[in-house]
Amino acid sequence: MKKYIFLFLCLPSFGFGQDALDGHISTAKSEHASGNLQEARFELEQALSELDILISKEILALLPAQIGEMTANETEDQYVGNAIGFSGIFIERNYTAVNADQSLKISLINDSPLLTSINGFLNNSLIARISGKKVIKVEGYKVIIEQLEDTAPISFDVQIPFNSSLLTLNFVGIDNQRKIIEYTKQIPIKSIIQLAQ
């Protein structure tokens, strides 16, 4: 238990809701000192939850306000603190063009059930090609680009797995893979992964 308390004491300040995080850590230390390990554990779990919220907000802050002709709808942002049924890091941001003919949804989720199949494609490029997927590298990370079947307008998913998380970009109304790759490169993937892992 002491090592967990030490870990929290060494955490950097994120600037969002730091007081709540500090409060849970302080209470956990007090409970631990009193020998009440169950309460100390509860407070550490609450601190982890607060930390997930802080990290989710930091990741949203990294995302650009505009990608191509599409502008971020920041008032619709979702993250772990306001998305029911999620724990761990979760974010979602939507972008739309002025005439609404193009859109992009960026989502990041821990423990995605899709990770096993996506990693299978990344580890076998032949199977990926046969399945209609394209594997490229962006900022040193392997990325899968896939045109979704039977969608109107045309849609593409760009998926970037890392550790136990999955970053997904869903492009709608953009039929040019070159543009999709260009737009994907506007997202600070490396910085997002460093915060999320």
- Return residue spans where pLDDT drops below 50 for at least 5 consecutive residues: 1-16
Q: What is the C-alpha radius of gyration, as a whole number of Å?
A: 19 Å
CATH topology of the largest domain: Protein Transport Mog1p, Chain A
Q: If you average the pLDDT, what whole number results?
A: 82
* Number of continuous helical runs: 7
Element-level helix/strand string: HHHEEEEEHHEEEEHH
CATH architecture grouping of the largest domain: 3-Layer(aba) Sandwich
Just give the CATH class of the largest domain: Alpha Beta
Number of domains: 2
Question: What structural class do the secondary elements suggest?
Answer: alpha+beta
- Estimate what percentage of residues fall within beta strands: 25-35%
The largest β sheet comes out as: 9 strands, antiparallel
Query: Percentage of helical residues?
Result: 40-55%
Distance between the termini: 22 Å
| Total number of strands | 9
Which overall shape is indicated by the principal axes computed on the Cα atoms?
Answer: elongated
